[in-house]
DNA sequence: GTACAGTGTCGAAGCGCTTCGACTGTCCCA
DNA sequence: TGGGACAGTCGAAGCGCTTCGACACTGTAC
């Protein structure tokens, strides 16, 4: 039962070869493989031996053609390098793993190609389902799929989800949790340091939801709050910190939604005498490993990439099985690590 | 000539539908699409109109089956989150873009599944070529493909490349360039701060080549040199910097091959009075944007991800066209930004 | 006027698989 | 003791495409 090593270029063995080898009909081999009909133990054994002996693997194209199912999930991912790269990667990893666990493969589609690409995939039957990451408030790309019945799962929530399944962290709730944490500690003036301006300009769904949640949470808690987009790069961050400290000196707590800027931000604050958490509190939205790797471990709501990815695949599979899924927002969890504390009201009390 | 919007679930139009619509034979439609035979302008126009009217897109599975070519490149990528994530992403982006430009799609395969996965892809005819990122010195996964004639391109160079095509930055030369830069400036004691120990333990090809190049370059230039793996995390980096400064106080120049640790490293050095570049020179190996975003912009050899990715796809396409490619190592380019300077021999001259 | 090379088009034969209906036994229960 | 139910297997049709050889023309050259 040694598996023959096949040179590519030799004709690959087909189901007919296996059938001949095992002395059965091709359809029987197919049924052994799919389990869709009962097979006697003896026959099964002979077929499996034949498969092993020939090193047979079913041809994906033929299978797709005959069964009208590709066992492929198309994953639409943004491959900008400006944002969030590690988080994107975590999503991709989680989704790929989940797909493999269900015997699906992943076709990678780069976002920011036009809608024709998706049509090509869907109408060319290149995949059985579509998972779209990083959805923006408006996604013209997806319009042609609306109501088509083709299984689509969005990671993120567009303005009009329609009948698309959506999964995501509840960014609005996450922002509220961050704000509430600062409010409980006694902060009265806070600021949101968000992603680069480009992200807002694109209308990126999660960034907007986080911002809106921040503003709503602050309003409810009666806090003064402002929002700032944070450009990356050490000098930019320093300049923006200076501007913030100058223009809004009362701010004692920051909510940061910008992983890339965190190291620079912490350095800038310390060098300006605003040590964290004594003289500036920070609550961040970022992956756990990033929160922990900072010079001051950060209180943070983590982005549950693995959970979101898993759920996205589950929803896709559900749709393949005929269920329809709605919007799912995963609840945020704040991990306290010590970067937020009660404010020292130095500016107010006066201090030598 | 309005393209009809198709509901998925409606039977998708086939080449036969288009043929009927245009009043020609299916094979004629096929030849219009492939351009493999001459077609009169009139017929072509009618066929194209029919295609547009029906919104026809060829079925990928059927096409693959009939033509024995999938128009898919399988990309084997590591999705660990411990290393190099942005760089990996740049490779993936570059490869995906290049593939699309050649009308190929990308099937994403996660590394660290067993060899059966690759066999499934190759023998199941799921892809026409394979690009493998992050290759290690020994890749048992690839053994079954050796000599098979299936187009394989490696990003990185294993110990025994055999007939696999390989592309990569010339990491050994890159290390030498870094060492030479420090040597020219007058440094005599240098250290390499490399990636996490796990990367060396895995036998990751590029890390080993960089290290070997570093040691060889230092030997040639007559420098004292040591090698240290750098664990990520702020505290680990601080501890390791302390150890270095204690155990090898004469070191005045660092070669850093560890993007993730750079912010922490710079912070640690400054807080220990070893400002860069005055009291410690640094030359790094990292992407340009990362080098520029540091608190001190770094002299760095960048990883030409886009070039490597492009070349990888070109080599894959070349193999599909019957050419065989060998190893290609791209020359390193050092970008000077001011993080390396002549050493102040403070420890030697004594200074108040 | 016949031969001959194109040129443009068609029909049919697969590519390798799944799946449906049909067929042959067995077994069990009426 | 006959018949239905069921397990196990087979053969053939067909999924939608590509591609090969054949065929009908149209010119052009002798």
Q: What oligomeric state do the depicted chains represent?
A: homodimer
Straight-line distance between termini of chain A: 85 Å
The global form of chain A is elongated
Instruction: Report the CATH superfamily of the largest domain in chain A.
Output: Response regulator
Under CATH, the topology of the largest domain in chain A is which?
Rossmann fold
Describe the overall structure.
The structure is a homodimer of 352-residue chains. The first copy, chain A, is an alpha/beta fold and 352 residues long. Chain A has three domains: 15-58, 434 Repressor (Amino-terminal Domain), CATH 1.10.260; 72-168 and 305-331, Response regulator (Rossmann fold, 3-Layer(aba) Sandwich); 171-298 and 337-349, Rossmann fold. Chain A is 44% helix and 16% strand. Chain A has 15 helices and twelve strands. In chain A, the strands form two sheets. A six-stranded parallel beta sheet of chain A has the order 2-1-3-4-5-11, sandwiched between helices. In chain A, α1 (15-22) packs across α3. Mean pLDDT of chain A is 91; it is low at 346-352. Chains A and B meet through α4, α5, β2, α6 and α12 of A and α4, α5, β2, α6 and α12 of B. β2 of chain A pairs antiparallel with β2 (105-110) of chain B.
Label this structure with key terms.
homodimer, 352 residues, alpha/beta, 434 Repressor (Amino-terminal Domain), Rossmann fold, 6-stranded parallel beta sheet, 15 helices, elongated, DNA-binding
Helices and strands, with pairings:
Two copies of one chain form a homodimer.
Chain A: H1 15-22, H2 26-34, H3 41-54, H4 60-67, E1 72-77, H5 85-101, E2 105-110, H6 115-123, E3 129-132, H7 140-143, E4 152-155, E5 165-169, H8 171-185, E6 189-194, H9 197-201, H10 205-221, E7 224-229, H11 234-247, E8 253-256, H12 262-271, E9 281-285, H13 288-293, E10 299-301, H14 305-320, E11 327-330, E12 334-335, H15 346-349
Parallel strand pairs in A: 1-2, 1-3, 3-4, 4-5, 5-11, 6-7, 6-8, 8-9, 9-10
Antiparallel strand pairs in A: 10-12
Helix pairs in contact in A: 1-2, 1-3, 5-14, 8-10, 11-12
Chain A binds a DNA duplex (30 and 30 nucleotides) through residues 14-16, 24-28, 30-31, 34, 36-40, 43, 58-59, 61-68, 125.
């Amino acid at each position: 039962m040694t598996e023959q090593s096949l040179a590519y270029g030799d004709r690959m063995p087909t189901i007919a070869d296996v059938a001949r080898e095992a002395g059965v009909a091709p359809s029987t081999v197919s049924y052994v493989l799919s389990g869709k009909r009962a097979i006697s133990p003896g026959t099964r054994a002979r077929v499996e031996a034949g498969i092993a002996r020939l090193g047979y693997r079913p041809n994906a194209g033929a299978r797709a053609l005959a069964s009208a199912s590709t066992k492929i999930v198309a994953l639409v991912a943004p491959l900008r390098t400006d944002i969030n790269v590690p988080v994107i990667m975590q999503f991709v990893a989680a989704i790929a793993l989940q797909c493999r666990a269900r015997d699906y493969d992943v076709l990678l589609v780069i976002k920011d190609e036009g809608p024709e690409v998706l049509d090509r995939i869907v109408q060319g039957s290149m995949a059985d389902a579509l998972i779209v990451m990083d959805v923006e408030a408006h996604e013209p790309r997806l319009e042609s799929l609306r109501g088509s019945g083709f299984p689509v799962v969005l990671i993120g929530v567009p303005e009009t989800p329609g009948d698309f399944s959506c999964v995501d962290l509840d960014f609005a709730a996450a922002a509220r949790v961050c704000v509430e944490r600062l409010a409980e500690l006694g902060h009265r003036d806070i600021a949101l340091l968000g992603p680069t301006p480009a992200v807002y300009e694109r209308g990126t769904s999660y960034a907007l939801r986080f911002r809106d949640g921040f503003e709503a949470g602050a309003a409810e808690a009666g806090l003064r709050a402002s929002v700032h987009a944070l450009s990356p790069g050490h000098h930019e961050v320093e300049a923006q910190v200076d501007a913030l400290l100058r223009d809004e000196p009362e701010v004692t707590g920051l909510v940061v939604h910008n992983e890339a800027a965190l190291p620079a931000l912490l350095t800038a604050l310390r060098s300006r005498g605003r040590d964290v958490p004594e003289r500036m509190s920070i609550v961040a939205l970022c992956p756990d490993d990033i929160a922990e790797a900072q010079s001051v471990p950060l209180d943070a709501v983590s982005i549950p990439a693995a959970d979101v990815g898993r759920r996205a695949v589950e929803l896709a599979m559900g749709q393949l099985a005929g269920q329809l899924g709605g919007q799912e927002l995963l609840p945020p969890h704040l991990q306290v690590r010590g970067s937020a504390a009660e404010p020292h009201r130095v500016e107010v009390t006066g201090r030598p």
